[in-house]
Write a structure and sequence with these properties.
Elements: H1 2-23, H2 26-35, H3 43-53, H4 59-84, H5 89-92, H6 111-126, H7 131-147, H8 153-190
Length: about 190
């Protein structure tokens, strides 16, 4: 297992170094600073979930996004990040400097990728016509974390995979509860008092 982890770490560092030395530019830095805001603290997706709650047609989607984000905060950011405790690339690779302010939490998994893929998956499971734009946004946010040198490739890949998993779990659980509650409400309205 040690050789595998060493190979992954070497690959991660080589990708980050290649981006830093060959692709890094002022324009891309500015572009990805804006893109990364879509995953910042989950605020964008929380706002989307809240807005969806206001409309009966989209309420289930909002609940499923919220449940998925909650799973990610607890499991991904609360548990996995602290157990793995992986330092950020700018703290571990000589010559790499952060282009954003230094972050106080750990690198693995990427919380931005996790959040965006959770929300995109929950949205895709409930509003399929919104799936492609949601996943395109999630991919852009994941890539932004590499270009800003705050995550390794495996951080964003695992964040995305966990995001899909938590998005599915959150949607299935919250969707089932929501459907049951709606069915009970509908049944109670049909039953005379």
């Amino acid at each position: 297992m040690g050789a595998f982890l060493e190979a992954v770490t070497t690959w991660d560092a080589s990708v980050i170094t290649a981006i830093y030395e060959n692709v890094h530019s002022a324009f891309l830095t500015m572009f990805f600073r804006i893109v990364t805001l879509l995953g910042e603290g989950g605020i964008f997706w929380i706002a989307v979930a809240v807005i969806l709650l206001f409309f009966k047609k989209t309420r289930r989607s909002g609940i499923c996004i919220g449940a998925s984000l909650l799973i990610g905060v607890i499991v991904g950011n609360g548990i996995i990040k602290n157990v793995v405790a992986r330092p950020r690339p700018y703290d571990a690779i000589a010559g790499i400097e952060s282009v954003v302010s230094h972050l106080s939490d750990y690198s693995f998994p990427s919380g931005h990728s996790l959040c965006c893929f959770e929300a995109a998956t929950a949205l895709a499971m409930n509003r399929t016509k919104w799936a492609i734009p949601a996943y395109v946004g999630a991919v852009l946010v994941a890539v932004s974390r590499l270009f800003l040198f705050v995550h390794y490739p495996t951080d964003v890949i695992c964040g995305a995979l966990l995001g899909v998993l938590f998005g599915v779990l959150g949607s299935l659980a919250a969707g089932a509860i929501y459907d049951r509650v709606c069915a009970n409400i509908a049944a109670s309205k049909k039953t005379p008092a």
